[in-house]
Design a protein that fits this description.
Helix content: under 10%
Structural class: mainly beta
Order of helices and strands: HEEEE
Strand content: over 45%
Largest sheet: 4 strands, antiparallel
Strand order of the largest sheet: 1-2-3-4
Shape: elongated
Radius of gyration: 16 Å
Amino acid sequence: RRKDLDSGRLEVRRYEVVDMAVTWYPGAALVTNQVVSEGTQDGDEFVSRLQVTQVWIREGRWWRRAAFHDSPTRPPGS
């Protein structure tokens, strides 16, 4: 992506984290959210919405991400 951004092939006009929820457990946290982005790639407009799930583990005084998953969401009615 960095190469596409630097060359101008990819232009991101919006990148927003929405609907974040955190569920706390002893020494761990489950984080869910959606990421909405809009822009152009190779001159074509795009709108993207991803569902994101992350698992964070506490190791001493640090939080470390143990798992990450994202997948496109389907538009309503599709």
